[in-house]
Amino acid sequence: xxxxxxxxxxxxxxxxxxxxxxxxxxxxxxxxxxxxxxxxxxxxxxxxxxxxxxxxxxxxxxxxxxxxxxxxxxxxxxxxxxxxxxxxxxxxxxxxxxxxxxxxxxxxxxxxxxxxxxxxxxxxxxxxxxxxxxxxxxxxxxxxxxxxxxxxxxxxxxxxxxxxxxxxxxxxxxxxxxxxxxxxxxxxxxxxxxxxxxxxxxxxxxxxxxxxxxxxxxxxxxxxxxxxxxxxxxxxxxxxxxxxxxxxxxxxxxxxxxxxxxxxxxxxxxxxxxxxxxxxxxxxxxxxxxxxxxxxxxxxxxxxxxxxxxxxxxxxxxxxxxxxxxxxxxxxxxxxxxx
Length: 339
Prior knowledge:
This protein has 339 residues and is of the alpha+beta class. It contains 16 helices and 13 strands.
């Protein structure tokens, strides 16, 4: 979940050729017009939201198709997006690198992405009458259940181990508060390796989830932080979408248990996979807790910790106590911290 000290209105990090929306729109049309003599760029529009490390322009072509152009300050590893699209199909944008000598000389990397229909979760919440999280979260669970990569997760465990060790060694007092928990999680990694490996988005929030008028998810965008992880680790953000933050405190809403996406997950899995995972609920619960900890205190490419959300960090002790529905007793709170 990388964040930037620059606001999205601040273009001071961009070269002169891209430091206004009009300049970016002009470049986006120029780049697409150079791709095909028979298909031309007709118009542009801004996205609902923009990223911290990129600027985006949406271009309408003469075919009436829309294409997303991203200008980035560094290269993007395309392999996570390619794997996600391989597993989830058109729910993931197709992405391509568009090289341009002039922009490359300015340190800009440019990418085109297929445009996912619909609006962001944020926009849907504001504009769709009778908006409800319940069908959305069920749809999201069904999608995440399609991300199977392989039967076991041993290949991902070393990366998880290194991340936990960084948390254990951290000097930041907010991170150090969870040192003992991270040490305990190290002892569960062998069990974690027995879970199947699934694609994990690792940056699921309302701006990266595209929604149709029927309250079904039409796609997930921004897969730059994605990687394969043990089943459950990639669901870390989902129970946060089920609750909400009020005055900096994570709250369980009255419809929390109805809104939990596990029905969609079980429906999306094969019968054999669902049956196997039902025997591993304690490990799946641990995987979600480890995923929540690692996603909260994420590590940048240079090995340093990113700028974590202090509101999430304050609620983290509670979030780490989450139990998947079939692993808790009837009437028991989803969060052991509440008992």
